[in-house]
Amino acid sequence: MLPTLRATLPYTLAVAILAYLVFFLLDPAWPAPVLVVLGVLLCGVLVPILRDVKGNAINLSDDMVEHIYQGETATLYVGNLPYRANEESVQQLFETKGVVLNVRLMKDRQTGRRRGFGFVEVAAKDAEKMINALNDSEFQDRTLKVREAKDRQES
Predict the structure, then answer these.
(1) pTM to 2 decimals?
(2) Which residue, 45, 61, 145, 146, has most beta carbons within 10 Å?
(3) Mean pLDDT rounded to a whole number for the chain
(4) d(Cα 65, Cα 81) in Å, to the nearest integer?
């Protein structure tokens, strides 16, 4: 069975039964098999479409967020991060203060372990607010250091 069909089948059947009841109440002269087929066809088309539309609206990828936000951006340095922190938890923390476009936590090249700092790309209009709110704040039992990132020097 196709994954989309398997995922939408319970909804399709539930809505088909509701459609059957609605059609029956509107015109009880129609034969029951015709009403069931109408309900299943109608719901078999509508439910997957609605599910895809809803799913796409909720699950925005990082690329889509960058294309949606058109304003100026700023990159913040975030230091003294706990080693167990991941991109998602840092993004959630910063999103409480404004628009976050990207989170990059640095890892050691040899071991792959996090190095305890990273960079958060944010809307420029929210950068100062985020710095003031999150610098010297507690995050997972560590005191964060947040400031505007300096440009990388060419060597």
Answers:
(1) 0.56
(2) 146
(3) 79
(4) 24
Tokens of 93: 């923390």
Is the model's pLDDT at 59 over the cut of 60? Answer: no
CB 148 within 8 A of CB 72: no
List the end-to-end C-alpha distance of the chain, in Å, as a whole number. 57
Residue holding tokens 């998602």?
88
Torsion (CA) 33, 35, 41, 47 in degrees, nearest 10: -130
∠70-88-3 over CA atoms, to 5°? Answer: 90
3-state secondary structure the chain: CCHHHHHHHHHHHHHHHHHHHHHHHHCCCCCHHHHHHHHHHHHHHHHHHHHHHHHHHHCCCHHHHHHHCCCCEEEEEEECCCCCCCHHHHHHHHHCCCCEEEEEEEECCCCCCEEEEEEEEEEHHHHHHHHHHHCCCEECCEECEEEECCCCCCC
**Which pLDDT band, with edges at 50, 70 and 90, does 27 fall under?**
confident
Rounded (5°) CA angle 5-8-14: 130
Task: Count CB-CB contacts under 10 A for residue 119.
Answer: 16
